[in-house]
Amino acid sequence: MTSPDGLSPQTPDHPADPEVPWQRLHPLSVWASAAVAGIFLVPSAIVGTIVLAVLGQYPWVFFPVPGSLAFLALTTYLDLLRLRATRYRVTDERMEVRSGVIAKSYRSIPRERVRSVDVAAPLYVRVFGLCSVTVGTGEKVGSGGSDQLQLIYVTAEQGEGLRRDLLHRRVPGRTGDAEGADGSETAGAAEAEEAADEVELARLVPAWLAYAPATAATLGVGLGAIAALLGLNAQTGGVGWDWVSGRLGLPTPEQMSSFVMARLLMVVPLSLLALLVSGVVVLTLAAVETWWNYRLTREADGTVRLRRGLLTSVSLSVEGRRLNGVTLHEPFVLRSVGGADVRAVATGLSAADEKKTSAKSRLSPGMPRARARALAADLMREEASPLDVPLTAHPRSALRRRFTRAGFVTVLGAVAAAALAWAHGLANRTWWEHAIRAEQEFAPVPLATPVLETTPTWGWGVLAVLLGVAAFWYALGSYRGLGHGLHPRYLVVRQGMAARDTVALERSAVIGWRITRSPFQRWAGLADVAATTAAGSGMYAATDVGLGQGLAWADAAAPGLLEPFLVREDGGGASGAREREGA
Fold first, then answer.
1. How confident is residue 167, by pLDDT bands cut at 50, 70 and 90?
2. pTM for the whole thing?
């Protein structure tokens, strides 16, 4: 039988090892999943029964609770089948997993390909003493396959044993099979020995949690809550608001709308303040849950280990020799208050999409910029941080490109504002009455339409001017964020305005270069020069750099790699470089 990964269970190159027994997932994993599902299903079914009884739908009253229990029993039975079908083991050379009830699968990876081990324990499985283990390999395992192996769930002792065995390259014992005091004492001694050899790189300072609300999403959290309420009101046709206002004696929507419009200058700032406060509270609580007990250490063998989490305990270990650099991530709002966070450039941290990969590679919460730069230097084991090397500015033509885009946005904004002002001037009283009634279907208190009705037509021109100012300000900040440089061991690139990233990548990790030029870049003498690597996102580019400037930087960063495609303008000197014709 051939596995989905293109490997067979027994081949001449990878024979099965009969001396290492196969292990099962822990039986409690089934009941943990059933308990969690029951917590959500059963109360919902009871509420549904009560609602149906109040509405007089007696034939259907008897379906929610038995139906939810039957569904819970079915899912539990399927989990039991999955538990019986899943086996794993770690030999001296490989990690192997067998799974599947109907479609059997066998997956096997060499231990030297293991790049990271992620041990996660959400609260609902932590009470059972369980955890999930995700083994990252940093590359795809066969056509269409995943780049990781996952075990859901094993005991906490098994998870810690797998982490030590796979990353420390130890000869694996029978993790989780040892019985009695001897096995426990051995595991405890190993953990104590590792703890003694750890070097602490960072630990949570509670004041850092103040950086959590420093994000553009702070107002969005409050707006999301309001949007959810408006959506619920729209789905009920306004019945919910009418019921609440009737029970509490609230004014009618027309009276409330008139009250708000009469005090618009007071209501708008107070509403924004309420949105800001609600966003700050929610994001701070989320940061507490995510980063509580945060600790970043380096173990004796160079493995970098991240531990964090209040309700969901997470332990992520990255093999030291696979950590090829760091990224200093500075979103605009966080940068404005002097904060930053640190992310790893390493193999084995890829996920389903770029957003999840970025979150998984994050090694710190938001912290003061100086502390983040110091942590980055500690991770790279450099006294002189590569992030402190002077960066070369990009040509003025890169600024002109950004100003051209800003001008295009400004023109579009002016055209749109003129069209809206013209439509605003044509709208009559009857049109606004229809618009207000339409808004009442979604919002219990229509405010947007009355505000637009009372806004003078020249207000659209003000918005167009503000848009143009913001576009040119953004273009200037984007240009100022560009830069590239070289450290004896690292190449450094920086770019971004909304989210500015400064990446320090080991020069030895560069496996190729990608040089791209659009027609407009060719006209301006610019290019995007990107270093390709097996780590991180796979490509890190100096954007809109001068062609000769970028090629000289790439040639100096990885000598010899671009040599077959370069011609020296000065007959062999290093002052300039250009692309060879046809290269």
1. confident
2. 0.78
CB 176 within 8 A of CB 154: yes
* CA pair distance 394, 342, nearest whole angstrom: 25
Q: How far apart (Å, rounded) are the C-alpha atoms in residues 298 and 317?
A: 9
DSSP letter for 263, please. T
CA dist 393 and 390 (Å) reads 9
Distance CA 516, CA 522 (A): 10
Question: In the predicted model, what is the mean pLDDT of residues 470-490?
Answer: 95
pLDDT score recorded for residue 174: 44
What residue type is assigned to position 41 of the chain? L
Distance CA 379, CA 389 (A): 17
Q: Taking the mean position of all CA atoms in its chain, how far away is CA 462? A: 37
**Residue (of 461, 494, 470) closest to 480 by Cα position:** 494
Counting other chains too, the contacts that 67-74 makes at CB distance below 8 Å and 24 or more residues apart are 68/41, 68/42, 68/44, 69/42, 69/45, 71/41, 72/34, 72/37, 72/38, 72/41, 72/42
Give per-residue pLDDT as tens, 508-565.
Answer: 999 999 999 999 999 999 999 999 998 888 899 999 999 999 999 999 999 888 877 7
Q: What is the pLDDT of residue 191?
A: 57
DSSP-assigned beta bridge partners for residue 32: none
DSSP string covering 132-190, please?
Answer: EEEEE-SS-SSTT--SEEEEEEEEHHHHHHHHHHHHHTPPP--TTT--SHHHHHHHHHH
Question: What is the DSSP code (8-state) at residue 391?
Answer: P
Beta-sheet pairing, 510-516 with 323-331: unpaired
Q: What is the DSSP letter of 536?
A: T
Are the C-beta atoms of residues 521 and 544 closer than 8 Å to each other? yes
Residues 286-295 have a mean pLDDT of 93
Distance CA 186, CA 2 (A): 38
HSE (side-chain half, CA atoms, 13 Å) at 238: 13
Rounded to whole angstroms, how far apart are CA atoms 491 and 529?
A: 12
Cα–Cα distance for residue pair 74/256, rounded to 1 Å: 51
Tokens of 498: 């909304």
Residue of 253, 280, 276 whose CA lies nearest to 450: 253
**Tokens at residue 192, please?**
């104590």
For the stretch 141-165, pLDDT in tens is 443 445 678 888 888 888 888 888 8
Cα(529)–Cα(539) distance, integer angstroms: 10
CA distance 197 to 202: 15
- pLDDT, residue 441, reads 66
Q: pLDDT for 415-450, tens place per residue?
A: 999 998 888 888 776 777 777 777 766 666 666 677
In degrees, to the nearest 5, what angle opens at C-alpha 346 toward C-alphas 4 and 299? Answer: 110
CB hemisphere CA count around 322 (13 angstroms): 26
Please list the helix, strand and coil fractions of the chain in percent, rounded to the nearest 5, in that order: 50, 20, 30
Rg of the chain, C-alpha, whole Å? 30
**Rounded distance, CA 456 to CA 459, Å?**
6
Q: What is the CB neighbour count within 10 angstroms for residue 458?
A: 9
Say if residue 490 is preceded by a cis peptide, omega within 30 of 0.
no
What's the mean per-residue pLDDT of the chain? Answer: 80
Distance in angstroms (rounded) separating the CA atoms of residues 163 and 170: 10
Distance CA 71, CA 87 (A): 26
